[in-house]
């Protein structure tokens, strides 16, 4: 079983709804089935459609990634580029949230309750989060540059409208073998022209790293980048 089963249903349903609402009424729907190299479904895979001329979303609300029972909640948060995220601490102990990621480097020093202000994520990409006090805490903020995206369900399935002008389609999963900050580019022409429903996508994954080695895991991923 993959390690993201604790993500709330509200997370998945919210972003599925956003993806549907932002797509064109006349767009063709595509169905996807994402699995790993062993044929097991990959839930919580982010599929993003990069569309020519797509306007960025506006009037974005502040997203929330809480800290509950020494875990980020949700563990994976999908937001739009330029969106703010609030990181409340609902534990009765203090946390020190930080990220070394290229997409967003920041830290919220030792605090409990509400931080002083939310964090703005200006760049697209993936921010891997940790806690300087509790190394077992690992979270991911996926910053989408496109308003067209969807997250696979617990069976690795997703359905999204395919608008005109798609330049590329990418897939991201936290356990992808190239590291948690990398995305895989898919053959969008094959997906658009295929009669397969759902269209199969295979991502090669690695085993989750021990949850007491966040800092060393991140450094190793960075060191292995080309």
UniProtKB/TrEMBL annotation:
<protein>
    <recommendedName>
        <fullName>Plastocyanin</fullName>
    </recommendedName>
</protein>
<dbReference type="InterPro" id="IPR008972">
    <property type="entry name" value="Cupredoxin"/>
</dbReference>
<feature type="signal peptide">
    <location>
        <begin position="1"/>
        <end position="29"/>
    </location>
</feature>
<keyword id="KW-0732">Signal</keyword>
<dbReference type="InterPro" id="IPR034242">
    <property type="entry name" value="MauL"/>
</dbReference>
């Amino acid at each position: 079983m993959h390690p993201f089963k604790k993500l709330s249903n509200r997370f998945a349903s919210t972003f599925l709804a956003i993806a549907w609402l932002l797509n064109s009424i006349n767009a063709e729907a595509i169905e996807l089935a994402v699995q790993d190299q062993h044929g097991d479904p990959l839930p919580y895979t982010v599929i993003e459609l990069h569309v020519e001329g797509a306007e960025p979303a506006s009037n974005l609300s502040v997203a929330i990634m809480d800290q509950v029972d020494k875990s980020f909640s949700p563990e994976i948060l999908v937001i739009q580029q330029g969106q703010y995220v609030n990181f409340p601490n609902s534990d009765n102990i203090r946390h020190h949230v930080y990220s070394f990621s290229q997409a967003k480097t920041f830290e919220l020093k030792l605090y409990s309750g509400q931080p002083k202000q939310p964090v703005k994520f200006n760049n697209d990409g993936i921010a891997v989060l940790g806690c300087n006090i509790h190394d077992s805490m690992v979270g991911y903020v996926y910053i989408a540059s496109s308003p067209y995206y969807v997250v696979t369900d617990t069976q690795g399935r997703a359905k999204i409208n395919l608008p005109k002008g798609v330049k590329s389609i990418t897939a991201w999963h936290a356990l992808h073998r190239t590291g948690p900050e990398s995305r895989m580019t898919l053959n969008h022409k094959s997906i658009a022209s295929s009669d397969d429903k759902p269209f199969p996508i295979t991502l090669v994954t690695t085993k989750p790293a021990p949850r007491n080695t966040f800092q060393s895991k991140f450094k190793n991923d960075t060191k292995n980048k080309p």
